[in-house]
Amino acid sequence: MDTYDQPRSLAQPIDLCAAIDAAVTAAHAGAAILQSYAHHRADLVIDRKARNDLVSQADREAEAVIIQELQTRTPKFGIVAEETGGKPQGIATWYIDPLDGTTNFLHDIPHYAVSIALIAHAGTAVSATETLKEDTPVIGVVYDPNREELFTAVYGMGAWLNGRRIKCSRTQTIEDSVLATGFPFRDFSFADQYMPMLNDAIKRARGVRRMGAAALDLAWTACGRYDGYWEMGLAPWDVAAGTLILREAGGTCTDMHKLDPWPIGGRVVAGNPAIERALHDMVAPHLDNPPSDAA
User: Fold this and answer.
1) 193-220 pLDDT, tens per residue?
2) Model-level pTM?
3) Which of 8, 39, 181, 201 is 20 to 30 A from 57 via CA?
């Protein structure tokens, strides 16, 4: 059972069409802020939250614009955002990463995105005939402003790239796969678990890529550019939108420990169903017991 603040209202299903429209509008607004700074990176004020964990005024201003848009259009939903925080509440909560790939952005590497997801909480109706039994991503938007690629998904309706339906790959084995991953970069507590996983993947897969933006890793897996993806040490807003986009593209995205209904703890295994199972088998021998924050 959850402990969110506001009571569930089951009389009317959540309006997913209105929510996806709000998320797309907010993502474009946030991206416009990012791109306005893209040619003036040297002038950005950059703060260091922790080792290798940076934030700039571009992140903060983009997040403020996104939050304003979502609060105006969906005032009853909670908000959890990377820079300003928040907590789950109401029947659903927005998870916002205004700039996934901050390090890329600050180094003029054109691979970053805005990521916005809506998580409907257990007990929320998503249609006249379905009420969710557990917290579930129901809206996902990942916008790459450099390529002008907009990945979107709506629960039960499918996933799209710039309005075209997408599906994950049909590759059946790791040996035939190109995999995406992310190295430990700010939290090194799990490095002893991760490095043997990477070693296995390098030796088995056709290729392993590390691009530095988890939301795009999941979106690219959803459209078949990657066959699978795994990573540890992420935040909920890094993976919320990409989880739904991949699931609606026919793939599977799960918590590495198979405990949470979606990878809210930031330990992700993803791909088409065959590759996701194979990746679980690959990482399991090296995985410690779940951390204490895992549900």
Assistant:
1) 999 999 999 999 999 999 999 999 999 9
2) 0.92
3) 181
